Amino acid sequence: MRRGGPWQARRAFLLAAAGSAALPALAQVDVGRASVARNFVSADNIERAGTQQYGELMSQAKAKGALAPPGNAQLQRLRAIAQRIIPFAAQWNPRAAQWKWEVNLVGSKQINAFCMPGGKIAFFTGILDQLKLTDDEVAMVMGHEMAHALREHARARMAKNAGTGVALSITAQLLGLGQVGDMAARAGTQLISLQFSRSDESEADLVGLELAARAGYDPRAAVSLWTKMAAASKNQGGLSFLSTHPSGPDRIRTLQANVPKVERLYREAKR
Ligand SMILES: [Zn+2]
Fold first, then answer.
1. Strand 120-124 to 102-106 pairing
2. Parallel, antiparallel, or unpaired: how do β-strands 113-116 and 102-106 relate?
3. What is the pTM of this model?
4. Of 77, 150, 219, 268, which cross-links 93 as Cys (Cβ 3.0–4.6 Å)?
């Protein structure tokens, strides 16, 4: 079903790449450079904090019997999808080539997923079950969350928030596990509950769309994903994914408009 030949495709790709001033050089979506504000917080520090907080959250979940064991089919599915996307991550942030990526599944009704700085990914069973996500849609969520980490949105936000006394998050509530201790809150769990700006969100949408397309996931799934999100119950509590990721006609329209930009990447991806 490929239009043109491989030669023409290659040529169009090179022309598109040459015409783009965005980083990375090969990017098909247009998101510009990463925020300058992030330079005020060390990437090392924030990745270390992400790793520590992720470790604490996962041990809390494990203590509650809510951490999926390695043999869990849904967890294996998530890890397989991540393995396909990860090779394309370093194009967006060279540090990612050294990240020790982790993917875990937490048993919780909440519709939620995150990727902490340093490549620490968690999905909640609620997002898979309640939205009945296809692999392509999972890849869009994962790409979006990975994009936040790769574009260092947390780093930029922490830099902007520094000194303004941002309240610590209530981790246990976020996990939907009840009171499982405030250890992570004491450790300063800002990373997990950060509210990103609207421009961070649309950047994550577009970078995630491209990451997933390069990994061979159907970019049209971004549209079906956010349509499902919009239809899902808004009654998810203050820290949920739906409250930090409002899905409206604008979001869906922007994604729709960007699908053609990455369709070729999707069609040519190895599967
Ligand atoms: Zn987001």
1. parallel
2. unpaired
3. 0.80
4. 150
